[in-house]
């Protein structure tokens, strides 16, 4: 399925190739202060937050004999604009409008391709005068950007979004991003919680050295295997102790290795020792997993020898609810690494939370939820000034990450952001996985005041 197309147009040396390089994420187009460096149409796959599109860098638009080289370059530019879903017309915000800018605007107005105008080289407020001048082009409200420094990209996202956001394309992207490869699962916990014994039981063979001495496992070991015809990449890690107790150099390296394993994992299983219950260090490990944005499952091991099992389980759940207040409802299961009981349930829960962790919500569904959530509980008005939340978009999955656009969002209380996250988990079936929520406001001082 073809991507929507953005054609960057403008007179020579306004920064078209610099913007092209920024959108495609690599230096493909040559950039130089001399005009005329770009001669052909150059294409690449661009990305801006969650928008994906084909971007075309065109030669500078000049008025020359069609048979000359500049004339042929202009013909290429005209063809690019005809093919595009939207033309991004770049002017130099510092220089302001020129007669050639006005000529290009007349040509763009005569065509059928939608046009958005951006005043480039507008670091800080350097291009504000040029941006305001560009209103005279009759092509709608111009935005201010700096292609070189990456400023104004949120505003660029806003103006391009209506032209290049296609639900059918995002659905295709969802399928690509959904976790269909091996489940990357790290097993972490305090020393001697039974991690290696659990791995051996899962594999059905003695792959790990085990014993009563804490700290036998020094390295993170990656193992590929199958569970119910599903691929699993299992990482058994060295135990994490309190930093104050990590004195031995080898143990320091093991702790670093465990942190790397968490970073590489999709799902992290925190293994507790039923004979010792939940300790402060367990909560610190769990907090680290959540901070790293990984999906978390808690497994209480040695359940076959646990005393007062029911009160122990309820106590662990209550302590987790209190100690992990930022993420409610983390799955808690009981296992016995020695007998193998509970291992199937543990793996089933791990695959389930990975599905939630990899989930993408279609933009339409997400914004319908957003409108309902705001209607049910409008944002506050600090100092009598209304905070207006305009729309939300998912910028990535694994973990699901969202950006909310609006005005005065810097004054939105943390409690309201927490309300949005909790509603999202409940209404969009995102489950107990870390979510990321960022607030963004347009930078243009005259943008949609009110």
Automatic annotation (TrEMBL):
Q: Which PROSITE patterns match?
A: G_ENGA
Which regions span the lipid bilayer?
Answer: none
Q: Where is the EngA-type G domain?
A: 4-168, 183-358
InterPro entries reported in the protein's UniProt record: G_ENGA, GTP-bd, GTPase_Der, KH_dom-like, KH_dom-like_a/b, P-loop_NTPase, Small_GTP-bd
The similarity comment for this entry is:
Belongs to the TRAFAC class TrmE-Era-EngA-EngB-Septin-like GTPase superfamily. EngA (Der) GTPase family.
- Which is a Pfam family this sequence falls into? KH_dom-like
Q: Which species is this UniProt entry from? A: Sphingomonas caseinilyticus
So where does GTP 2 get bound?
A: 189-196, 236-240, 301-304
Task: Tell me what this protein is called.
Answer: GTPase Der
Q: What does this protein do?
A: GTPase that plays an essential role in the late steps of ribosome biogenesis.
Give GO terms: molecular function aspect only: hydrolase activity
What assembly does the database describe for this protein? Associates with the 50S ribosomal subunit.
Q: Say which domain of life the source belongs to.
A: Bacteria
- Keyword GTP-binding carried by entry: yes
Q: Which keywords does UniProt give here?
A: GTP-binding, Hydrolase, Nucleotide-binding, Repeat, Ribosome biogenesis
Question: Has keyword Nucleotide-binding?
Answer: yes
Q: Which residues bind GTP 1?
A: 10-17, 57-61, 120-123
């Amino acid at each position: 399925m073809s991507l929507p197309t953005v054609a960057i147009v403008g007179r020579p040396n306004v920064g078209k190739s610099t913007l092209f390089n920024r959108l495609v994420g690599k230096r493909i187009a040559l950039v130089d202060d001399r005009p005329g460096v770009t001669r052909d149409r150059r294409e690449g796959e661009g990305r801006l937050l969650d928008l994906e599109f084909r971007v075309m860098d065109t030669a500078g638009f000049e008025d020359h004999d069609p048979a000359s080289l500049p004339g042929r370059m202009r013909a290429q530019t005209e063809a690019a604009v005809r093919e595009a879903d939207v033309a991004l017309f770049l002017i130099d915000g510092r220089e302001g409008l020129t007669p050639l800018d006005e000529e290009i605007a007349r040509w763009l107005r005569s065509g059928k391709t939608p046009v958005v105008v951006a005043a480039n080289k507008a670091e800080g407020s350097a291009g504000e005068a040029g941006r305001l001048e560009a209103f005279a082009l009759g092509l709608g409200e111009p935005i201010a950007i700096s292609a070189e420094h990456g400023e104004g990209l949120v505003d660029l996202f806003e103006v391009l979004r209506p032209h290049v956001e296609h639900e059918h394309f995002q659905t295709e992207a969802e399928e690509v991003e959904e976790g269909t490869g091996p489940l990357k699962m790290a097993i972490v916990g305090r020393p001697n919680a039974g991690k290696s014994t659990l791995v051996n039981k899962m594999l059905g063979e003695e792959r790990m050295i085990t014993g009563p001495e804490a700290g036998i496992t020094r390295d993170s070991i990656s193992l590929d295997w199958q569970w119910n015809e599903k691929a699993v990449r299992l990482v058994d890690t060295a135990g994490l102790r309190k930093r104050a107790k990590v004195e031995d150099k080898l143990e320091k390296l093991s702790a670093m290795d465990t942190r790397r394993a968490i970073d590489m994992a999709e799902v992290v299983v925190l293994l507790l020792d039923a004979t010792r219950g939940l300790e402060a260090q367990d909560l610190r490990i769990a907090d680290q997993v959540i901070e790293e944005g990984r999906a978390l499952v808690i497994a209480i091991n040695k359940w076959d020898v646990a005393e007062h099992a029911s009160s122990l389980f309820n106590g662990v759940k209550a302590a987790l609810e209190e100690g992990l207040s930022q993420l409610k409802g983390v799955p808690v299961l009981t296992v016995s690494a020695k007998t193998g009981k509970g291992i199937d349930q543990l793996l089933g829960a791990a695959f389930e939370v990975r599905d939630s962790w990899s989930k993408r919500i279609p933009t339409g569904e997400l914004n319908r939820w957003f409108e309902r959530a705001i209607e049910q509980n409008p944002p506050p008005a600090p100092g009598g000034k209304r905070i207006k939340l305009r729309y939300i978009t998912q910028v990535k999955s694994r973990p699901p990450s969202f950006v909310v656009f609006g005005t005065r969002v810097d004054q939105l209380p943390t409690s309201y952001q927490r309300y949005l996250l909790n509603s999202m988990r409940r209404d969009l079936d995102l489950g107990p996985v870390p979510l990321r929520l960022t607030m963004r406001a347009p930078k243009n001082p005259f943008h949609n005041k009110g």
